[in-house]
Predict the 3D structure of the following.
Amino acid sequence: MLYRMNLEARFNDRPVFVTGADGFVGSHLTETLVEFGANVHVFVRATSSGELRNIRHLRDDITVHRGDLRDKHSVTESLKAMSEYSDTILFHLGAQAHVGESWDRPYETIDTNVNGTMNLLQAIVDLDLDIAKFDTAGTSEEYGNVDEQMADKHEYEDDGRVLLSERSPVNPTSVYATSKLAADFLTMNYHDAYGLPTVTTRMFNNYGPRQNPRYITGTIITQALERDIVELGNLTPKRDMCFVEDGVRGHMQVALEGNPGEEYVYGYGENVSMREWTNLLLEVGSEEGYWDNPEIVQREDRYRPGDSDVEELLVGYEKLHELTGWEPKVDWREGARQTIEWYAENPEKWAGRVDWR
C-alpha cells in the first residue's frame, strides 16, 4: 500500500524515542518502527517486573533506557543519548492509563502522567535537544460528558449524537482524564514558551492484541475463554473503538506531518454501546470456535464510581484525514477476530493480570 511505503521510507534510519514502549499501543508502535528501519530508543520502567514483556522479541533491534518518568534524573540521563542525533521524533505514550485504577491510585496517576510529561519536556529544554516532533498521547476520556453550559459549543450529528473533534470543549470526569488533559496543556505550554515542536493526539478507545486484560475488550474475551459467564459493569456507554494498528499509524502520521502546537484526534468514526460491543465479540468468538454463547451478567461493583462514567464518545477525524489521508483500515469484526485470537493463543500473557477471578 502506498501509505505504508511512504511511512516506511520516512522512518527509515530516523532516530526515535518512545516512552511506554512496553505497553499496549507503545509495543505495537515500537514493533512498526523497527520494521520500518528506524533507530529506535525506548524508555521503560526500571522497576517493572514485566520489563520488555511485549517487546522482548525486539531486544536486539532497539536501544533500551531504564528509568521512571517520575524521576527527572533518569529521564534526563536517558535523553542524553539523543544528543548525538538531529530531527529526533519523541513519542510519549508512557502513562498510568487505566480509568478505574486512577481512582485506586490517584497520586501515582497524577505523578506519572503530569509530572512525568513535564520531566520529559524540561529535559529536552535543559539538554537543548534537536527534535523534529514531540507527540504526547492524550485520550478521548478528556472530553467526558457534555456540560449543559457548553452544549451549544459542541457539534452534533443529524441523529443528535455529539461529534468530538479538536474544536470540542473538554470536561474530564476521572483522575486519569484530568491527568491526561494536564499533560496535553503542558505539552502546548512548552511549545508556546520554548518553541518545542510539540503536538498532542487523542486516540479514541484503542483495542487489539496485547492490551491489558482489565480493559473492557480483554475483560470480555478472557472471561469467555475460561467460563460460561461474562461479568461486566455498565453496558450503556458508547465508545468509538479503534484497532491498535490504525492507532499506531495515526501517531506516526501526526508525528511526521502534524503542525507544532496543534491537537489531532482520531478513531473509527462510529460508536457502539458496550452491550453491542460485547455481543459482537462473543458472536465473532463463537463463529471462530473459541466459546459457545456465554451468559452476560452486569454487576454494580464493576461500575465506575458516582457519575464519573462517560456516556458517549464519537470522533470526527476530518482534520487528520485532510492533512495526511489517514483513515481507519481495520473494521470491527476483523479487529475483534485478531484480538480474540491473540488472547486465545497467549494465556500466559494475561492469566495473572485479570481482575475478575
User: Anything to note?
Assistant: The longest strand covers residues 131-139.
